[in-house]
Amino acid sequence: CPAAAGEARALPGCRPRRRLRPRARTGTAPPARAGDEPLLRGIFEIGKRSCDVVLSARRLRWSPILPESPTGDSSVALQAQEEIIEMKDVFSVKLKRRRFAGQKKGGTLLGITIFKCLNKEENKLTDCAIHLNNLSEDHCQSWFRHLKEILNGFQNRPKSLKVFVNPSSHKREATHIYNEKVAPLFKLADIKTDVTVTEYEGHALSVLKECELQAFDGVVCIGGDGSVSEVAHGLLLRAQIDAGKDTDYVTKPVRAPVPLGVIPAGTTNVLAHTLYGIKHAVTATLHIVMGHIQAVDVCTFSTPRRLLRFGFSAMFGFGARALALAEKHRWMPSSQRKDFAFIKTLADLKPEECELSFLPLQILQEDSEEKDRITLLYLGSKDQWQKIQGHFLNVSIMAIPCLCSMAPRGLAPNTRLNNGSMALIVVQNTSRTEFIKHLKRYTSVKNQFNFPFVETYTVREVKVQPRLRSGPDAKENVCLNAEGDYPWNIDGDLMKEASEVHVRVHPQLIDLYGVNTEDLESSQVMCNCI
């Protein structure tokens, strides 16, 4: 019988001549769902056991072939456990050959190897290989073609990527991470790459303005938060240029043309943590390879004269001053520089006077007692600006939760990746002791906003207008640098601006490779705006 020799065949077909004991079943077999109809059936050796293997568009399943027991012992049949692989978890298939040292082509065919994405504990992904051994060339070629056709049917999976590697990020690990962990998986998945190793700040931005983006299915950045922010800004800026929009005044931006992948190789890696729930290069790479795409909200940061930046989050006050001080000490090692800047800024803690104007957002809130009922909640009047003025230690504006190892719940745990809102978090002037208590809460599961000097708002637009002091109090303008600009921390990048900054959120403006990590435990935030 050809099947016994390993020939691929479509059902119905012949069975091997020896008698096989049917697998033990309980109950009635469910009807085949769409995509479950068998495409091929054949015999392979898997794990040193001959197996009856069936391929459908949705899954690959196999079970050991067991001969009829001469004693009629039914316990033998129970050992024939069926194993299943969902085809959506498979990212590559290769013909397995034995080759001599130095031989690059040809070789003795041994079978087929299937590479699967495996979801381990704590959001971590890894790859594993399943070997289907069979020496028949025709048999394996037929199975290989069918498997490749199924994999090519997954539309979101990239075939060509533009890759940016920042060799200066954190401990200069980005190049090593790409060569040792990322590139091998891209090659295994037959993804073509065009790699640019950035040489200076703004290099990725200049490349994105000129390159032929239509030749790629996505863009990938290996680096820290600053590198990712630059690439995201470049992608969105390129989209506005291609759409013929005025890039100095963007009120209704168009979406980025291709998805962005983030491989963490920095210090905090906020965006990677938010997308993957973990800092793990292999996990990030497999999300890209598998084509897991998540639409994400983006903010525009503008002055009355020009667009400053596309970004996901920003801090004004303490968070920005600490970053500005760290940038002045770039000669220090990365971790020491940031620790020094944090402690020094905390020691010189001073508030800054400014006026905050914001548009509260109309949101949907789920009733905690009746899960099926949605209550419409208005934060203030629709389209009516609200203002607060005072002395603030820190102002945070965030369109994403901003998870990181130092803030496992996120810097803004009550916002989401794509609900069209921003979290405005205002820390009013208080003692250094109380401010430190607030900062420590970020590292725990406790509510970091449950302090009388912290206010939170859910908004869609924010304007931040610093108030310059004059006369004898002018020396208290602690945020100002020599040029008269105030520092802003936008996605870990330092920007300086003297005038009012207008922040708008734009729902689902960019697609990122990753998942929605909204399984975080929700917290009850003390908020004075409800």
From TrEMBL:
<dbReference type="InterPro" id="IPR045363">
    <property type="entry name" value="CERK_C"/>
</dbReference>
<dbReference type="Pfam" id="PF25382">
    <property type="entry name" value="PH_CERK"/>
</dbReference>
<dbReference type="Pfam" id="PF19280">
    <property type="entry name" value="CERK_C"/>
</dbReference>
<feature type="domain" description="DAGKc">
    <location>
        <begin position="156"/>
        <end position="305"/>
    </location>
</feature>
<dbReference type="InterPro" id="IPR050187">
    <property type="entry name" value="Lipid_Phosphate_FormReg"/>
</dbReference>
<protein>
    <submittedName>
        <fullName>CERKL protein</fullName>
    </submittedName>
</protein>
<dbReference type="InterPro" id="IPR001206">
    <property type="entry name" value="Diacylglycerol_kinase_cat_dom"/>
</dbReference>
<dbReference type="GO" id="GO:0006665">
    <property type="term" value="P:sphingolipid metabolic process"/>
</dbReference>
<dbReference type="InterPro" id="IPR016064">
    <property type="entry name" value="NAD/diacylglycerol_kinase_sf"/>
</dbReference>
<dbReference type="InterPro" id="IPR017438">
    <property type="entry name" value="ATP-NAD_kinase_N"/>
</dbReference>
<dbReference type="GO" id="GO:0001727">
    <property type="term" value="F:lipid kinase activity"/>
</dbReference>
<dbReference type="Pfam" id="PF00781">
    <property type="entry name" value="DAGK_cat"/>
</dbReference>
<dbReference type="GO" id="GO:0016020">
    <property type="term" value="C:membrane"/>
</dbReference>
<dbReference type="InterPro" id="IPR057465">
    <property type="entry name" value="CERK_PH"/>
</dbReference>
